[in-house]
Amino acid sequence: xxxxxxxxxxxxxxxxxxxxxxxxxxxxxxxxxxxxxxxxxxxxxxxxxxxxxxxxxxxxxxxxxxxxxxxxxxxxxxxxxxxxxxxxxxxxxxxxxxxxxxxxxxxxxxxxxxxxxxxxxxxxxxxxxxxxxxxxxxxxxxxxxxxxxxxxxxxxxxxxxxxxxxxxxxxxx
Length: 173
Description:
Elements: E1 19-27, H1 32-48, E2 54-63, E3 68-75, H2 78-85, H3 90-99, E4 104-112, E5 117-122, H4 146-149, H5 163-168
Antiparallel strand pairs: 1-3, 1-4, 2-3, 4-5
């Protein structure tokens, strides 16, 4: 059967520790547009700087109403991703977001080529992704950090905000 489809695939063998992460920011309240517009361009610029280990960055639009945008990133390995997430400017953004989401919700889902997946959903009012079908639990204790959630506690790097700091300094989440 002849075809006009240009069907291709990729060789991922040069990337044995590849990590793919989807992130989204959803406007939950009108004033959340300001939060989204403040973070969005900064995140785009940070990817342009090509942090160590970032292979590719793609912006995504999940919906216009409610406004829900995101990104998909491909990282060489989990330690590269976690190291960037604990560095500036990401560290600053995440600390500020956890103090006050500014009328927005944030989520991410992470997929590792060697196995393991994890997710976190902060102020997301409608369950989506894994949360649409899997049991949802508070991100506390062993479920607090992404490395532990994905089954790679050996790659744990101190979080931007510790669990104790997050829950005892007034955020109450």
